[in-house]
Amino acid sequence: QLQLVESGGGLVQPGGSLRLSCATSQFTLDNYAIGWFRQAPGKEREGVSCISTSGDISNYDASVKGRFTISRDNAKNTVYLQMNSLKPEDTATYYCAADLFGDDDCARSVNFEGATIDYWGKGTLVSVSA
To answer: What is the DSSP letter of 4?
Structure first.
C-alpha cells in the first residue's frame, strides 16, 4: 500500500523550533499538492498548511501563519514544514497528505475541503512543553 512517511517530530520547549519532513520512496510527489494536518487529543483533525505541485502556491491556517513555513524539494521527493516559535497549543500528531493535481484545492482551502486525498502518512508526534 502506497503511503507517505513523516519524520522530525519530538519534544520541544515553548519558543523552540522543529522541521518536519514528508517523503516517500514509492512514488513521485511531483504531481501532488501536499498538505500538513494535525490532530490533538480529543480534537478534530485540522489543516495546518499546504503547498502546490511546483511550490509557487502555499496556504496557512491563521493559527500558524508567520510561524510555520512549508516548502518542497521535488528533487528529493520531500516536503518540509518548518515550525518556529512553537506554542503548547501546537502539540499534536502531524500528518502529511497528497492530493493529485491538487493545486486549486490547496489554494481554495488549507483543509482541502471537498477534495479527495489520495495518500496519507501515519503521523509524527510534536509535543511542546516546558
So the answer is: B
Alpha carbon 89 to its chain's center? 16
Q: Could you give the angle at the alpha carbon of 91 between the alpha carbons of 97 and 108, nearest 5°?
A: 40
The string of pLDDT tens digits covering residues 84-117 is: 999 999 999 999 999 999 999 999 999 999 999 9
Beta strands, E only, the chain: 5-7, 10-12, 18-23, 32-39, 46-51, 58-60, 68-73, 78-83, 92-100, 119-120, 124-128
Partnered with residue 66 across adjacent β-strands are: none
127 contacts 12 by C-beta, under 8 angstroms: yes
Cα-trace Rg, the chain: 13
* Residue listed under C-alpha cell 489520495: 118
Q: Which amino acid is at 10?
A: G
What pLDDT digit, counting tens, does each position of 38-89 carry?
Answer: 999 999 999 999 999 999 999 999 999 999 999 999 999 999 999 999 999 9
